[in-house]
Amino acid sequence: MKENKAKNKRHYKFTDKKHSIPGIVSTGMALVAIFLVVLAVSISFGERGGAGIGIGLLGFFAFVIGLAGFVVGMKSFKNEDVFHLFSYVGTVLSTAVWFCILFIYLIGV
Does the keyword Transmembrane helix belong to this entry (predicted)? Predict the structure, then answer.
């Protein structure tokens, strides 16, 4: 019986699955949104909170891009026979962008 289990461990499973294209797009959108949030916060910090409406718009665009990345990431889970790694990463990062922007808004920075 033990020989049979050891024999099964030696088998490799080959697949022709690829990464989900919408998942990759979702991850890219989330990374762009993170970059925009970091840029907006660093500029605002450098200006000691007086950066103006342009930085607020930059944060709003980051929020919109994060929302779009979340929607694309969630829709990418419907694709079958693909790896969903980038779908998970894009959805989680987009959600993290939302929470960061919400946190910044609530503390009044």
Answer: yes
